[in-house]
Design a protein that fits this description.
42% of the residues lie in helices and 13% in strands. The protein is α/β, with parallel strands linked by helices. The protein has a domain of 245 residues: TIM Barrel, CATH 3.20.20. The strands form two sheets. Strands 1-2-3-7-8-9-10-11 form an eight-stranded parallel β-barrel, surrounded by five helices. It is globular, with a radius of gyration of 21 Å. 45% of the residues are buried.
Length: 395
């Protein structure tokens, strides 16, 4: 634990105070649904890109987003603002997302203002380490990407800031990477009065020791009593989470830091090296939003919805300062996946039933739906899903 705390403190020392103006200040109180459980939706980078390239134009598409969210009484939007080490806003640290860069206005500022005018909270969703998936060729990266710059600056010592595993990732074990991610959070909050910063489950992409072998060997050579590889990886992620939490609350105490891990607490710890037990114990997150993307009849009882919910309730109960919200899988409706199909192919009320359990349970502060395009799909089965859900949210 002392070694882990030393890593955390090293990151925290990187933090400095934040100053500067911010777009769309929180001058509109987010009180549309005061007294109710929080309800919200994730909007992915691909969904946002589709709105930008739409023939109707982005403004018309986004007006529809707001109208749909208000009609379904959703008070939160979790928007992908940095999905692949790029940004949908002007940044000194990351290249501009190509879709957002095609516009002649500040996309994030426009979205933020419209959300606050509608009484909807906007959370900025970031994947901290992912650079590229499905392609490990660094020559295909934007030359402005930090990963590209580290690999092409002639300095071999910082090449290990970038790792490869069926894609390209920033290396969680390198202090320069942690400084970049934390600095990116700080930069975002300096300029945009978002209501929250949100990470999801993209932490370590593999358990393979070769992924970060050079960094781990350098760490072991310098340490008197080195941690095991798994312990060291968990300590790296813990350091980033603690550093981001400190940066966020140094900037604005009202801004919420949330993380959306995978459904299994054990798998998160052992395979993704994301130790939610430590985060809860140390209060380095404000909200956990586990992705409970399972039904009531999943063949493995450990992954049935109510079993998973009970585990997360017990975990977050250990620290009242950490809220629990639940992520639900609208996208699974109609699936033909082997283990899900019997329940989800015709189970148009599953999301409504899960929502009702969550919002009637004082242990859960709210629910989020993944994702926007599935929740608001036009086909009959998704319309019926919304009708069931709307009946629950009206109650």
């Amino acid at each position: 634990m002392k070694k882990q705390m030393a890593l955390w403190l090293a990151v925290l020392l990187l933090l400095t105070g934040c100053k500067g103006g911010r777009s769309a200040t929180k001058d509109t109180e987010i009180d549309l649904y005061r007294g109710r459980a929080d309800t919200g939706v994730w909007i992915t980078y691909s969904e946002l890109s589709g709105m930008i390239s739409s023939e109707k134009g982005f403004q018309a598409e986004w007006e529809q987003v707001i109208e749909r969210c208000r009609a379904l009484r959703l008070g939160e939007i979790y928007l992908h603002v940095r999905s692949h080490c790029d940004a949908i806003y002007p940044s000194a640290l990351f290249p501009m997302n190509r879709s957002a860069g095609s516009l002649d206005f500040d996309l994030l500022a426009t979205i933020l203002e419209s959300c606050h005018q509608a009484g909807i909270a906007l959370h900025a969703w970031i994947n901290p380490y992912r650079v590229k998936t499905g392609d490990s060729d660094p020559e295909t990266l934007d030359p402005a990407s930090p990963a590209y710059r580290w690999l092409h600056d002639g300095d071999k010592t910082n090449d290990r800031n970038v790792c490869f595993s069926g894609g390209i990732y920033l290396n969680p074990g390198e202090p320069e990477v942690q400084e970049l991610v934390i600095g990116g959070v700080r930069e975002l909050l300096q300029h945009y009065a978002v209501d929250g910063i949100h990470f999801d489950d993209y932490f370590y992409p593999t358990t393979d020791p070769a992924f970060d072998r050079e960094s781990y060997e350098a760490y072991c050579a310098a340490a008197n009593e080195p941690l095991s590889l798994a312990e060291w990886r968990r300590a790296n992620v813990n350091a980033l989470i603690a550093g981001c939490y400190a940066a966020i609350h140094a900037t604005d105490r009202e801004t919420v830091f949330s993380v959306s891990p995978a459904a299994s607490i054990e798998r998160n710890r052992e395979e993704l090296y994301a130790d939610q037990t430590e985060w809860v114990a140390n209060g380095t997150v404000d909200v956990l939003i586990p992705q409970l993307y399972f039904g009531f009849e999943y063949p493995d009882r450990d992954f049935q919805f109510e079993t998973l919910l009970d585990k997360w309730k017990k975990l977050t109960a250990q620290n009242p300062a950490v809220q629990l919200k639940i992520g639900l899988a609208c996208y699974k409706l109609g699936t033909d996946a082997e283990y899900d199909a019997p329940e989800w192919q015709t189970g148009e009320d599953i999301i409504a039933r899960e929502t009702e359990i969550c919002i009637r349970d004082g242990a859960a502060a709210g629910v989020l739906f993944f994702s926007y395009s599935s929740l608001f799909a036009d086909d009959e089965i998704h319309q019926k899903q919304r009708d069931h859900l709307q009946a629950v949210l009206r109650d």
